[in-house]
Structures are given as structure tokens and as C-alpha cells.
Amino acid sequence: MFRCVNSANETDENMLKHFLSLWPGWQNYNAANILSTPSWKLFVKSRDISSGGEEIIACLIFSVVSPTAEVIDLYVLPSSRKQGIAKHLFMYATAQLNHLDKVSEIILEVRPSNKPARSLYQSLGFLLIAERKKYYSDGENAMILRKDLSH
Questions:
Q1: What ranges do the domains of the chain cover?
Q2: What is the pTM of this model?
Q3: What are 70's strand-pairing partners?
Q4: Do residues 37 and 61 make contact, with C-beta atoms less than 8 angstroms apart?
Q5: Distance CA 79, CA 94 (A)
Q6: What residues contact residue 143 under an 8 Å CB cut-off, 6+ apart?
Q7: Mapping DSSP to helix (H, G, I), strand (E, B) and coil, where does residue 101 land?
Q8: DSSP tally for the chain: helices H, then strands E
């Protein structure tokens, strides 16, 4: 199931807390703080689990200042990759942001070396608009991509 997680209810907070523990770079973040950040929108893909609940298998975080949404991060659990989940999550989120938040453009940064992400973004219609030299701590540049949602 794809959905927007925009309220700090206990179930969503616990699911997000568990997911953050698996997400490189996000282990020290507080789920409640993320969910209560006013400009952030979280979109998730979850699946039912045998114990009767559900678990998050992919998460896409945006910072939204209409009419622009910036991708903060995207993560799909390794066991759920190469199934089109990231693409479908992005398509769902884009439609929601455009309709509900009147977002007309999405921007993001991606490493030139991250070929799977670059391929995903290209397939979704993102275009290169700029490059930030030595953006990452290891000195790698960042490609700035943009997708126009206004048509």
C-alpha cells in the first residue's frame, strides 16, 4: 500500500522508527520529530506482515515549500529492490503533491556515481539543470535534477 504518513500516530511512528533503524544515515533520527516537521512530507510503501500488522519497505521524504518540493531522501529496503517500488512510490507521491499541495516542480540532488538512482530519475522525466562541485564530503559533485509538474 502506498500512502502519505503525515500525522504522528503511534502505529506510524513505531513503523517509521523501525524503518529508520534500517536506513543508512537515518538511524539517529527521531521518528516523532520527522513526522512533526511541518514542511516535510513522507510517502511510504508498506506491506502486510504475518503478525497482522504492516511494515514500511520504502520511504520517500520531501521538503515542501509550494510550489517546489525537494527530495530529501529515498530508501527501499535491499530485499525489496528491483521491483519497481521506488518508481511507483515516486509516481504516487508526485500525484499527491501536485494535487493536494499544488507543487509544480520537484528538485533533487544525486551523485553522478549513483547509476541506479540516475536511471530511476531519468525514467521519471527529471532533467539535469545544474551541478554542485564537490558537494559531498568525499569531494564528489552533485547533479541537480528537476521535474516540471505544471503540464
A1: 2-105
A2: 0.90
A3: 63, 107
A4: no
A5: 24
A6: 109, 110, 111, 112, 118, 128, 131
A7: coil
A8: 4, 7
What is the rounded CA–CA span in Å between residue 24 and residue 27?
7
Residue 19: other Cβ atoms inside 10 A: 21
For helices 115-123 and 85-100, what crossing angle results, to 10°? 50
Strand partners, 65: 68
Q: Determine contact, residues 92/2, Cβ cutoff 8 Å.
A: yes
For 52-95, how does the pLDDT look when each residue is reduced to its tens digit (9 = 90+)?
Answer: 788 899 999 999 999 999 999 999 999 999 999 999 999 999 99
**What's residue 77's pLDDT?**
93
Residues 6+ apart with CB under 8 A from 129: 107, 144, 145, 146
pLDDT band at 37 (very low <50, low <70, confident <90, very high): confident
**CATH code given to domain 2-105:** 3.40.630.30
CB 35 within 8 A of CB 16: yes
Asked if residues 147 and 124 have their Cβ atoms less than 8 Å apart, the reply is yes
Cα 143 to Cα 130: distance, rounded to the nearest angstrom: 6
Count other Cβ atoms within 10 Å, centred on residue 89. Answer: 20
**Nearest partner of 4 among 70, 97, 84, judged by Cα:** 97
